[in-house]
Amino acid sequence: MTKPGAGGADIGVLIVDDEEPARTILREHLGRVPGVRVVGECADGFEALRSAAELSPRIVFLDIEMPKLDGFEVLELLDPSIAAVFVTAYDAYAVKAFEVHAVDYVLKPFEPARIAVAVDRARERLARGGPVRAGELHAAARPEGTYLSRVVVRDGSRVHIIPVERLDAAAAKDDYLELKSEGRTYLKQQTLASLADALDPKRFVRVHRSHLVRLDLLARLEPYGKGSHVAVLSDGSRVPVSREGHARLKELLG
Amino acid sequence: MHPILAHRGRLLPYLAACAPLAVIVTALLARPGGLFLGEAVALAVPLTFAFAFMGLSAWYPCRQLPLNASKVVPLVVTHAAAAGVVSGFWVGFAALLAGSYGLIPAFAGLRGRFASQAVMLFAAGVLLYLLAAALNYVLLALETASEAERREAELSILAREAELAVLKAQIRPHFLFNSLNSISALASSDPPRAQQMCVRLGDFLRKSLSLGEKTSISVGEELELSRAYLAVEELRYGSRLEVEEELDERGNRCLVPPLLLQPLVENAIRHGIATRVEGGTVRVGVACGGGRLRILIENPFDPESPARPGSGRGLENVRKRLTARYGEEGLFAAKRLADRYLVVISVPAETAA
Questions:
Q1: pLDDT at A7 over 60
Q2: Is residue A122 within 8 Å of residue A104, measured between CB atoms?
Q3: Interface touch B185/A22, C-beta < 8 Å
Q4: Which residues in chain B have their CB less than 8 angstroms from residue A21's CB?
Q5: What ipTM does this complex have?
Q6: Which domains can be identified in chain A, with CATH numbers?
Q7: Residue B337, H or E segment
Q8: How many CB pairs under 8 A join A and B?
Q9: Which domains does chain B have, with CATH numbers?
Q10: Is the per-residue pLDDT at B207 higher than 50?
Q11: Could you report the per-residue pLDDT of B214-235, keeping only the tens digit for each?
């Protein structure tokens, strides 16, 4: 991660958009920004991840709606040292999330000057450091009343897509989330609160400050110490239930 | 519950309307050879109000035996029996009342005088019951009419709402801004195509604005609109988007509510073709036969791509519009297969006169 030298190398930019004309106009505008070199163009989310690994761009211009992985999922799986600029036609909820999480975004159609500004801001962010909380951003960028249908996780160079119906439980471990799915455990950098917010509250219950379970896996509740309980899941595993979690469960199960 | 008792505001006017009845009952009881006037009034007033409530009981047999859907014999037997029972209770109540009054010195001898009137009172009770039954039938008819009116109003509101939602959604901002972005891109890289896109976008907008005001258009016209839409999308998606049409001439002439297909074609692209790296073919089929018009829209989708928000609302909209327009006759089915999505519409075939 070397900074470009004094008269140094141009900064590498990757373009990700599934529509050919949209890539064309970005390439054209970026071509006019001094010190920028477009290292590649991709038309879907998987290709974006592959190209990012191979071409090591410093900045990615990311469309939101794409085949395979959407822009938010790509950002979650991308090397966090890459600065992302979202490019979108119209998406009120995403825009709100970008503002909250201080992520730069460009609205289609755009002027060349706006692209130059986006590059400047991305450079500043790269110099400043401090990666975006991609998981939180994705969780926040939803219309009200809609929920995540899947969770993406990176495991080395492999990408795992966990549909929520196969997500069994999640536990907060320091800065990470431990996600359980079909007997396997995956680690992801995200807060439990943001994941809980993005999942259907009728299917997933936060039974404890650091535990979330899928409701249909709950086999029974056992009292545990004074006022608290422990949830026994259908696979026999036990999850602590706090007083608030117990109240939530009672409300859901009636 | 009886509609008169169910609404507090109706009870007082109803009882007031019964007051003249008290005069008639008094006159009947005070006929020459009957009761003294004072006795007649003292009996008639409580009797009338008692009947006012007893008469309401006719509501239940009336509701069970609607005039237009019941056989004559059960109708007559039921009401005759009910009239006998109600009137019997009424006369019994009157006898009880007369007996109690008879204990008061001023009403001495009332019991005997009342007994001579009991048969007449029973006959009057039967007549009054039949009057009450007739009244209840009128009430029932009014209720049914207002219920039908309310249902009709509800349906028309539903239809209006659905139209409005379609008009609002018709020019989806996502589509518009992406198209503008494509034009912006083509303006320098391929000016003739940029011009073409402006023309196609204009064509689509003009068509959809003019169609929205009509209540019915031919399938052919609706398909023209979808083609104008697809022509714009073709420039965006390039070789990823293919369209196949399977039409029949009779189907083209059938009438449908405007903007019925266009949102479905739009869904097929947004939730189907656009989710696939390699794109795919949207198939539109129209067929007319056996008095019905059938429309099919089919598209592939990538089950491994993230779902995009908004398809449910669009489909729900189409379903609602079909119900509002055709009621039970408007069939709509959306089916998600492993990697294809199918929407089928079947409605009564209507053609312009």
A1: no
A2: yes
A3: yes
A4: 181-182, 185-186, 189, 235-236
A5: 0.84
A6: 11-140 (3.40.50.2300), 150-253 (2.40.50.1020)
A7: none
A8: 77
A9: 3-153 (no CATH), 171-348 (3.30.565.10)
A10: yes
A11: 778 999 999 998 999 999 999 8
Residue with tokens 């609404």: B7
d(CA B179, CA B206): 15
What is the largest distance, in Å, between two alpha-carbon atoms of chain B?
A: 116
**Residue pLDDT, tens place only, A12-55:** 999 999 999 999 999 999 999 999 999 999 999 999 999 999 99
CA angle in degrees (0–180, nearest 5) for A37-A38-A43: 170
Number of H helices and number of E strands within chain A?
A: 8, 15
pTM (two decimals)? 0.72
- Please tell me what DSSP assigns to residue A179: E
- Look at the block and give the residue holding tokens 């899947």: A150
Structure tokens at B192: 């003739």
CB B211 within 8 A of CB B193: no
DSSP string over B112-158: HHHHTTHHHHHHHHHHHHHHHHHHHHHHHHHHHHHHHHHHHHHHHHH
Q: Which residues of A touch B236 (CB under 8 A)?
A: 19, 21
Q: Do B236 and A21 touch (CB under 8 A)?
A: yes
